[in-house]
Write a structure and sequence with these properties.
With 320 residues, this protein is of the alpha/beta class. The protein folds into two domains: 156 residues, HUPs (Rossmann fold); 134 residues, Beta Barrel (Elongation Factor Tu (Ef-tu), domain 3). The protein is built from ten helices and 14 strands. The radius of gyration is 23 Å and the shape is elongated.
Length: 320
């Protein structure tokens, strides 16, 4: 897959079947757009292409409303690669780009640079200065420039319209299992393992303390998780607390502490990990003492082990 980060680098990408969007979260709706783009390209002998933006346009045109992001561009590009996309243009979104009218945006970028022959977008697609362009305008410009717009309907999961906004809200509320349905994968955060206060190893259970730059963190609580070593193939079933450790005096900053259900027997402890959030277990709460907290953690561990046993029975491939 070719990745361009400027209009100049994208010269020669066409002729293409093109989809456009931010693709934050790379969720079920995005996947449907990508699948249909790849299918259209193959049927018409075109290259499948994606136009996306960095930073999110709201950062430039309405910074107060700019959303926190679910995924990095690297994560989104990896999904696009998995879906079979040939070319990706990550267009630097500047004030100049933001001032392009719908007509200029289509002519200068979609037609002249990306050689669009088919353009696939969601039914709520807006483009151009002040979002003046909509799907009706795209249909009109398609006739003018000789490309075929295809409007893809919204995707629903569990009766909910799939959107990045909805997923952010679900994760923030701790509803990670439902968010996974909309994402078509568990939500995950990654980062460095950093030293903690040492209290867990001495008084409760030893944990891996995650320092992450992720912008979206699941709501405070205890979760069944799966943890991967980013520097090896090692993976563990785990349980993770997101919160402020109130039993030992409330922390001023949010902590993410993960207990591995199986010991890390091979090699040294992981230096960088990814934690996938599968299901919420309970709220974080303050206990009378470390012993009471340890007893609760062991009960949480029992629930997590039962969860993974059921998962192994119902869908063993999901654990490997």
């Amino acid at each position: 897959m070719r990745i361009a980060r400027s209009l100049k680098e994208a010269e020669g990408f066409g002729p293409s079947a093109l989809t456009i969007g931010n693709f934050d979260g790379a969720h079920a709706g995005h996947r449907e757009l990508l699948r249909q783009t790849v299918r259209a390209a193959r049927e018409d002998g075109l290259r499948s292409a994606v136009l996306t933006f960095d930073p999110h346009p709201a950062v430039i045109v309405a910074p107060a409303r700019a959303p926190k992001l679910l995924t990095t561009h690297d994560e989104r590009c990896e999904l696009m690669r998995e879906q079979g996309i040939d070319d990706v243009l990550i267009l630097p979104f500047t004030a100049e780009v933001g001032r392009l009218t719908p007509e200029e945006f289509v002519d200068q970028i979609l037609v002249k640079v990306l050689g669009a022959r088919i353009v696939l977008v969601g039914d709520n697609f807006r483009f151009g200065h002040r979002q003046a362009g909509d799907v009706s305008k795209l249909l009109e410009l398609g006739i003018l420039h000789g490309f075929e717009p295809r409007i893809i309907g919204s995707v629903k999961r569990r009766g909910r319209m799939v959107s990045s906004t909805e997923i952010r809200q679900l994760i923030g509320a701790g509803k990670v299992a439902l968010a996974a349905r909309l994402l078509e994968r568990p939500y995950a955060v990654e980062g460095r393992v950093v030293p903690g206060h040492g209290i867990g190893a001495k008084q409760t259970v030893p944990t891996l303390n995650l320092d992450t730059e992720a912008e979206i963190i699941p709501g405070v609580g205890v979760y069944i998780t799966r943890t991967a070593d980013l520097d090896s193939s090692r993976r563990w079933n785990s349980i993770t607390n997101v919160g402020y450790r109130p039993t030992f005096g409330r922390e001023s900053r949010l902590t993410i502490e993960t207990f591995l259900l199986e010991p890390a027997l091979e090699g040294s402890p992981p230096a960088r990990i990814r934690v996938q959030f599968l299901r919420r277990v309970r709220d974080e709460k303050k206990f009378e003492n470390a012993e009471a907290l340890k007893a609760q953690i062991l009960r949480d561990v029992g629930r997590a082990k039962a969860f993974f046993r059921r998962l192994e029975t119902l869908a063993p491939a999901a654990l490997h």
